[in-house]
Specification:
single chain, 241 residues, mainly alpha, 3 domains, two-stranded antiparallel sheet, two-stranded antiparallel ribbon, 6 helices, elongated, binds zinc ion
Amino acid sequence: MDVIDRQTARSNGLTHYFTGRECRNHHIAERYVSTGSCVECMQEHALKTKIHPSAFTKTLSSVDAAFLSERVTARNELQAQRIAVQQKRLALIEEKAAIRAREIAYKEVGRAARLAAIARQEAGRKAATKLTRYWVQVGAAHMDAVRAYAYAKAKMRDPDVLFEDVAALKLQARGTSIPLFGHMEDIQSNIEWAAALYRNAGLQAAQLAAVEAARVKRDAEFAQMIEDQAAQNGQPEGDPL
Ligand SMILES: [Zn+2]
């Protein structure tokens, strides 16, 4: 065994040094750089105190093991970080792609909706060209009913017909007459239906007036009767008026 003093051993990163001289227990053995203790003395001490001598070897190598495991842990952590960064980047790319897909889908839906609206308008315009204007006499109470009826009839002939084309709300009414648009085949019956409604409304008004007049007359007669009876009861017999 080569002689190496403690200072040299320490500066070379060694854990043991060797003087070549006996210790106080006459061992010629290596000594620990950290404590200066003789290795054989420490092993004997360990035997006496029932610590297995290999515990020292274990302790020594566990420093290396700890160092090694630290390095492994650090490397694993670095690797994990790299993987995490990579995954984040991939997720970002996927998210971007999803956003782009959504944008395209929205654009596509918007375009389809616009095209559908244009098609509806176009169909409506075409349907409107088949309508003819006519006038119906109608009471204020029945205007909405007549318009709805005319629209329903036109819609049955052509599903593309629009309410505003049938009702022509922008055109002014003339007195009790309103303008409507319809298919030639429906115009006559629509006018008749509206007229019947109008007549019926007049008839109903007359009936109501008659009923009301009868009620007033009956009330008056009843009041007169009560008055007459009161006059008869209140007067003594034979009393001259
Ligand atoms: Zn010793």
